[in-house]
Amino acid sequence: MKALQYNVPLKAGTTLKLALFSDIHFDSPDCDKATLKKHLDFCLKDGRYILIGGDLFDAILLRDGKRAVNHLMEKGDNQLNIKINEIVEFLRPYKDNILFIGRGNHEESILKYSGVDILELTTQLLNAGSKHQIQYGNYANFLRFNFVNKSNRSLLHYDIFENHGAGGNSPVTKGMIDFNRIAKGTLTDLIWLGHKHNAIADYSDPIMYLDQNGEVKMKNRQCIQTPSYQRGRTVDDHNVNFAERFYSHQALPGFGSIELTPFWTDDKYQLNADVKIIVNPYAKIGELQSYKLKVLQKQRENNLQK
User: Are strands 140-148 and 154-163 parallel, antiparallel or unpaired?
Assistant: First the structure.
């Protein structure tokens, strides 16, 4: 677990805007790159800083058998090099807005079985020759945003506990059991999970504590689970979508939005936090599956003609 800190100049009424992405699965043939690009372009135009909470890569290799897809063989044997280079080229226009890239179970799998840290290589290539340095994290991380005065003294801070997540889709509880488990033992402003491809923004129970001046305070913690940019996949040639088979439909592609605005009241600074999910409302469900059905039908027709 890492603890990373970011200093932000403190100015009342000025908003720090953050975008939380996870489960992009960029190198998957089912990644909705068009929507992803639109959302990243929006962040660039809106002055938002970007955080990526794991599974930037899909990282399915030829060795993965039935999970592998034909396009891997078409591109070459150096699969990891190809995947890293493609992601770096895609993210390069946004690199100065990216603050953090965390690890997901797909990156963990490559590190465990191939001995290659693809996130470290990716961030090194993006950071090369740049004053702005993207930090890469572990599977779980604390991210603190310090609002500092001209003397670089922190007068306010906002803490995010980021964990990529684990377990199944949890279509009934929508991941709230995970949130409650973490909230029980973690003092933070926001709990951020990914992994399950759900879109959730909710509140956890508030916690009471003493601050450094001995005053009793309440912290009303929030929780967010960010969705995926990977669409459901057709399984083999049976034309069955994974989500349809297991009745656990994932959310539309999107990202978490955090807007932190300091304000002055009662002779001290306080912080307003607006947390929500932004999704693509125009995504067409089954678009990729329909395309695959057409391809399979064409293949069958060709086979019958032979």
Answer: antiparallel
**How far lies 58's CA from each of 131, 151, 176, in Å?**
29, 43, 25
Query: 35-76, pLDDT tens digit by residue?
Result: 999 999 999 999 999 999 999 998 877 665 555 555 555 566
Spatial separation of the C-alpha atoms in residues 90 and 41, rounded to whole Å: 12
DSSP 278: E
Of 145, 126, 162, 207, nearest to 52 by C-alpha is 162
**Domains: count for the chain:** 1
Encode pLDDT of 119-156 as tens digits: 999 999 999 999 999 999 999 999 999 999 999 999 99
Residues facing residue 222 across a β-bridge: 190, 203
β strands within the chain, DSSP E: 2-9, 16-21, 49-53, 98-102, 135-136, 140-148, 154-163, 190-193, 200-203, 207-210, 216-219, 222-225, 234-235, 240-241, 254-265, 268-279
Question: 159-173 burial, b if ≥16 CB within 10 A, otherwise e?
Answer: bbbbbbbeeebbeee
Contact criterion met (CB below 8 Å) for 6 and 146: yes
Encode pLDDT of 204-243 as tens digits.
Answer: 778 888 877 898 988 888 999 999 998 765 444 444 455 5
Please state, in angstroms and rounded to a whole number, the distance separating the CA atoms of residues 107 and 25. 10
* Residue 256 lies in domain: 2-305
8, 79, 80, 139 from 76: Cα distances, Å: 44, 6, 10, 30
Quick check: helix, strand or coil at residue 190? Answer: strand
Residues with Cβ < 8 Å from 290, sequence gap 6 or more? none
The CATH number given to whatever domain includes residue 116 is 3.60.21
* Distance between start and end Cα atoms, the chain: 58
Residue 106's closest CA among 118, 91, 122? 118
pTM (2 d.p.): 0.85
